[in-house]
Amino acid sequence: MMRRDVFQAIADPTRREIINLIAHKRMNVNAVAENFAMSRPAISKHMKILEECGLVMMEQQGRERYCKAQLKPLHEVSDWVSRYKKEWEERLDAMEKYIKEL
């Protein structure tokens, strides 16, 4: 099985919202699912993808499964974006200068 990457995980708005929900506090899967107008199995599929990408860690506690965010993999996205940030800032500065000259 090919390992999914963090970019696949954050490509979906539902998965981004799940990350937002559990970023500061762990929640059980039912509590996460209550925030979405979709089935629990659909949320579980999203959770599985997030877990495969290393963005979520699942912890069994009694009968409940708790989701805990692991945000370190998002550094990969930040690093990738920062490579292009300087170039785009330079382009925007050049465009601003050109507009002022007009």
UniProtKB/TrEMBL annotation:
InterPro entries in UniProt: ArsR-like_HTH, HTH_ArsR_DNA-bd_dom, WH-like_DNA-bd_sf, WH_DNA-bd_sf
Superkingdom to which the source organism belongs: Bacteria
Pfam families in the cross-refs: HTH_5
The HTH arsR-type domain, residue ranges: 1-89
Gene3D superfamilies for this protein: Winged helix-like DNA-binding domain superfamily/Winged helix DNA-binding domain
Listed SMART domains: HTH_ARSR
Protein name in the entry: Metalloregulator ArsR/SmtB family transcription factor
Species of provenance: Imperialibacter roseus
